[in-house]
Amino acid sequence: MSEQSERIVKKLWSYCQVLRDDGLSYQDYLEQLTFLLFLKMADERAALTGEQQPIPKGYRWSDLANPKMEGVQLELHYHDTLKKLGEEGGMLGLIFRKSQNKIQDPAKLRKLVVDLIGNESWLEMTSDVKGDAYEGLLERNAQDVKSGAGQYFTPRPLIDAIVDCIQPQPGEVIADPACGTGGFLLSAHSYLATHFDLDKPQKKRLRYEAQRTYVRRLCHAELAQHRSAQDGSIRR
After folding, report:
1. Which pLDDT band holds residue 219 (cuts at 50, 70, 90)?
2. What is the CATH number of the domain that holds 72?
3. How many domains does the chain have?
4. CA distances from 5 to 8, 23, 64, 115, 199 (A)
5. 236 falls within a domain
6. For residue 232, is pLDDT > 70?
7. Is residue 162 part of a domain?
8. What is the pTM of this model?
9. How confident is the model over 19-44, as pLDDT tens digits?
10. CA 131 to CA 61: how far, in whole Å?
11. Domain that includes residue 82, residue range
């Protein structure tokens, strides 16, 4: 893990310990990070490209991070944002469906939004840095026996070794019914993209058809952010 990744993980993890005092579990914290990072990166991407972002107006990162958004107002707006996005179709609905605000202290929510996530430029980081940071949090989560998270986390070196042994080929369908947060799917995607000189139809198939899965919101979010890091797209 790079120095920048270590810094990000340490920063996010240290605040997790603060929220643990309020009864927030590691898994709850990761889920809240997923929601907020998705909003922040969508906002950064729209500012960078000038393209319309998929988040509806009034429920974007800029609304949530507004300096006037504090206290109960912030808590209510975050609740309404999660509810609204959960009602959307496509990828947004898959990620945010039935989502809830688990951070009950508005001051701590504000700190997470402004200081921890708002002060970083996530799109300027390489996909490896974001992936390392995210997997670093998952690994720490998995080490907590009480959370039961160890049932879905597999270290990246082991994932890559298994994918190297399987050697997925262009044109094949990649399925992982017990995919957890999508680590094997992302590794298979990277293997195909780096080991083969794919033509345009093959690239289209890899993006839209090759990976089929039954997943939870963490997997959808990670796959969506990985895809957007590759081609700048998140679809509603």
Report:
1. low
2. 1.20.1260.30
3. 1
4. 5, 27, 25, 17, 33
5. no
6. no
7. yes
8. 0.66
9. 877 778 777 887 888 889 889 988 98
10. 21
11. 3-231
